[in-house]
Amino acid sequence: MADRVLVIGSGGREHALAWKLAQSPHVKQVFVAPGNAGTADNGKISNSAVLVSNHTIVTQFCKDHNIGLVLVGQEALLAAGIVDDLRAAGVRCFGPSAKAAQLASNTSFAKAFLDRHGIPTARWKAFTNPQEACSTDFPARVVRARGPAAREEVTIAASKEEACRAVQEIMQDRMFGEMVVIEELLQGEELSCLCFTDGVTVASMPPAQAHKRLLDGDQGPNTGGMGAYCPVPQVE
């Protein structure tokens, strides 16, 4: 493990990474860029104002501060290829390449990948025309659009009318983007099964379940996550 580590991002995910890294006796200092209030001057952990959107500046920061390892949590930067650029400059970096990051940042790419490799997924279609998007015949629909900073906006619509309203907001008002993916809504339990891999070996983490809807009882708008728990009793 490197003596000095840089964690890139500003959310709870990066806070948790920095908190755990700081517990290692092999880590002397953890920088978080840009970080948040929880990662500001907390023992081994401190925030950095380095401009993370400029990969050249981040690379120079790593060299100036003898950063032995970079962990990128911010999805927009992964999609923009920060891992590729840091590795090309000789900086050790944990995270997917820009091409691999499309599986999380680009819904149409991910769905096409699943279909191409015979991996079961909900029926779906991608649209650039709002009138065509409103014509899908799925009984219940999930409307997805890639939003600002590669953030995905998701609307779970119980009716065709509700789905069309979401499509209009996304495509005609250009709130989130110019393409939407509409897929069939699958009912039931949703679990996350994450793995670490170096390209050869795969190590799985325990399954977890996240709460996405804003209100109790799976009600209200869909969010990026209202919390999660692990282990999951539904999975042995």
Automatic annotation (TrEMBL):
Membrane spanning stretches: none
Domain Phosphoribosylglycinamide synthetase ATP-grasp (A) as annotated: residue spans: 106-235
Entry keyword annotation includes Lipid metabolism: no
Domain of life, source organism: Eukaryota
InterPro entries in UniProt: ATP_grasp_subdomain_1, PreATP-grasp_dom_sf, PRibGlycinamid_synth_ATP-grasp, PRibGlycinamide_synth, PRibGlycinamide_synth_N
Ranges where the record places region Disordered: 215-236
GO biological process: purine nucleobase biosynthetic process; purine nucleotide biosynthetic process
Pfam family, one: GARS_A
Assigned keywords, A-Z: ATP-binding, Ligase, Manganese, Metal-binding, Nucleotide-binding, Purine biosynthesis
Domain Phosphoribosylglycinamide synthetase N-terminal stretches: 4-103
Single GO molecular function: metal ion binding
Name this protein carries in UniProt: PUR2 protein
Organism of origin: Heliornis fulica
